[in-house]
Amino acid sequence: MDDLPIFDLITGLPVHILVNHVVVVIVPLAVITVILAVAFPRLRQSYRYPAVGLAIIGALSAIVAEQSGEALEARVGVAEEHSEWGEMLPPVAVALAVLSAIWLIVSYMSSSRGKILAAVIGGIVIIIGIVAVVITVLAGHSGAQSVWGDRVSDTESAVVEPADEAVAPEATAEEAPAVTTDTSVLSVETVALNDSEASCWTIVDGNVYDLTDWISSHPGGASRILVLCGIDGTSQFEGQHGGSSSVEGTLESYLLGPIGDPAP
User: With 60 as the cut, is the pLDDT of residue 217 above it?
Assistant: First the structure.
């Protein structure tokens, strides 16, 4: 974990999850107060300092969100769309804070030239503020979609109408005997028997892992783990987390053993 960015965990929770709430509140609030201060002279005296203060806090929180997002990516993989929007926000938020501070200074100039300059800078600040809000919304939406989208879909698809009761055919002496699986060793067949949320085993690179306890804890959502239950999940794991030493370290904590070893 030594190679992770500085904004990683706080009290065991990802910093990114916590600071995101600051960003989605402070950045829009900063833009609203900036618009009130710039566009309405009667409100300027009351709102210009809070506007600049909020803009600075918004810029700092956007930077922390971007850095902590990199730490979270190292743990659970990359949510590409969310990552792209998250990387765009810090420079826009910093520009908003800097230009807001410049506007604050210029707004005290009483000359006609100063008033024109304040109006021009104020207009630019409002435009950048609107862009910052749009990026914040898109980043927040894409992040929520990556975490909750599959869960909501799974919940909806799980509600099904009960099937009509069917009469099971009577067993006959000529029926073929049931195929039994040796569950005393770790095998593809044994893994296939553990294909539910109650017991979720998977295979990665020839090793068997029990991911049951990780289902409810996975930051990317339970559905990302449930699709691996009972199958060889090597390709899915490598496609999402290949090369991430931190994620591989987490996976090792759920190791049961290589294929062919005695089952626990």
Answer: yes
